[in-house]
Write a structure and sequence with these properties.
Largest sheet: none
Helix content: over 70%
Number of domains: 1
Structural class: mainly alpha
Strand content: under 5%
Oligomer: single chain
Number of helices: 12
Distance between the termini: 25 Å
């Protein structure tokens, strides 16, 4: 992979990680469409870490509130809003962590299967439409229960498969629990942090064991930076978009992208 390919794929990652159209699916399909070598799971995680840096930067007040309230809880057992949010985030992280560790090798193999990713884009579209259909605009993040967090956590676990949008699946799950679109998206973005950071740390350990070349490091840095900057801009845009608009347009895009890629698979067969 060249530096320019890494930057381009980082922009794709940053744009599609939070827009509910599946970043993992695009990281599989875009190289396939251009005839590039697949980026591999290590590059994917580096780009994901860039997006997490954007999450930490954009939602720094929420995460700082967790730190402050955690210190207060240790000192006086005073449970503030930050402690409650931390509990919800930890609950939501459990399903993806368990499933990711249990099926790591199988998931790595699937990341090299463009037809599978193309089909899963249609599944993302269905999830988005179902969430819009059954959800009512009633609840905020402050109204969430552990049950809501667990449901969104299982949706996040489903998104380990390339082509299933993590943000799409979790926003749809939140909408199924009658959350406001913006609130479902906000918690979806917050809950991405522990799972993707955990996956990134596992990959860092693996990299330290096998080692990478200087060119490999440059590619990873390029992907990290381009994904991070793009992610920050997209988060701000999407939260504003969802205040007044449904996710239907993203479902249409997923159906169209899925159909186009499946057609290309058949033509290239």
């Amino acid at each position: 992979m060249t530096i320019w390919q890494a930057i381009f794929l980082g922009i794709v990652q940053g744009a599609t990680e939070f827009i509910p159209v599946s970043s993992s699916g695009h990281l599989v399909l875009v190289p396939w469409l251009f005839g590039w070598q697949p980026p591999g799971l290590t590059y994917t995680v580096a780009a994901h870490l860039g997006t997490i840096t954007a999450v930490l930067a954009y939602f720094w007040r929420d995460f700082w509130g967790i730190v402050v309230d955690s210190v207060a809880w240790v000192r006086s057992r005073d449970q503030g809003a930050g402690i409650r949010l931390l509990g919800l985030l930890l609950i939501s992280a459990v399903p993806a962590a368990v499933i990711g560790l249990a099926f790591e090798d199988a998931i790595s193999a699937i990341f090299e299967n463009p037809p599978f990713a193309a089909v899963m884009l249609s599944v993302t579209a269905v999830l988005l439409l179902v969430g819009e259909r059954i959800g009512r605009l009633e609840r905020d993040v402050g109204d969430m229960t552990w049950r809501d967090a667990l449901i969104m956590g299982f949706a996040q676990a489903l998104a380990i498969l390339p082509g299933i949008s993590r943000s799409g699946a979790t926003i749809a799950a939140g909408r199924s629990q009658h959350m406001l679109r913006e609130s479902a998206a906000r918690f979806s973005f917050l809950m991405s942090a522990p799972v993707i950071v955990g996956a990134g740390l596992l990959q860092v350990v693996e990299l330290l064991q096998v080692g990478i070349s200087a060119q490999g490091i440059a590619v990873l840095v390029a992907g990290f930076v381009s994904a991070g900057v793009t992610s920050y801009l997209v988060i701000a845009w999407l939260l504003n978009f969802l205040k007044t608009r449904p996710v239907t347009i993203f479902a249409i895009y997923c159906f169209a992208a899925s159909a186009l890629c499946i057609l290309l698979v058949l033509l290239r067969a």
